[in-house]
Amino acid sequence: MLPGEAIFLRRRSAIISAWRMAPARGRRSARQRAQTDEIMEAVNRFALRPLGPEEVAVFTLELCNNRVDRHWSVFPLEELEKINRLVPGKPLLERHDVKGSLPRGTFFRSRLHRGPEGYVAVRPDVYVLRTDENAELIANIEGGVYRSTSIGFSFRKPECSICGEDIRRCDHVPGERYGKEVCYYLMRDVVDVHEGSLVSAGSQGTTFVAAHDPTEPRAQARAALDELWWVFGAREEE
User: Contact at 8 Å (CB) between 40 and 52?
Assistant: First the structure.
């Protein structure tokens, strides 16, 4: 770290999709039961008593990716891998309100999602308790009103894409063009992930991917179709 250099605190928008852990309707296959059991086993690593599927709403979010955002910053792959490891156990907040409110949910697992054209994103799962207090929050997420998410994290070095130096120490300006290249900075040396938040709008401008109920056969088929859209590049996320 350079003398007097502070650790950066950043927030970044992303997308969110829903997995509704509702009671099963009709007969469930062994595969569906196994999927629900797997989710609940992961959820219950963070609960002080065993929770049942009917007690939680489970959502899948994209917290960050390897695209240059509106602030002219980007995560290198190795930093996404680090964030992916750090996310489980961190809280879900509203609007990055780290001082004024308590968490609304807990991230319980995460994976790296790979899409077309080299796209890579951190996709964690978060659970929210189905309480009266959370009913409005869950309804707004499931209904597509609350769509954007953002990550709160800290890192040490903003690396210039033009010269490789600390962007605070070189003469290049993010967003300015130098010959055929537009300057941006790479967020290097992530220190920690502090939280993930629901926000009204973020730097990526992305939205819901899909809504799923893993306990229903129709939802299982739709979830598989959504993955095919990603594989063949038919869905574009901005």
Answer: yes
pLDDT in tens, 46-94: 999 999 999 999 999 899 999 999 899 999 999 999 999 999 999 999 9
**Tokens found for residue 194:** 């502090």
Give the residue among 133, 168, 122 at the shortest CA–CA distance from 15.
122
Chain-centroid distance, C-alpha 69? 15
Give the separation between CA 113 and CA 110, rounded to whole angstroms. 9
The residue type at 237: E
Residue 204 in contact with residue 12, Cβ under 8 Å?
yes
pTM higher than 0.85 for the full model?
no
CA nearest to 174, candidates 163, 6, 119, 9: 163
Longest Cα separation, the chain:
65
DSSP 97: -
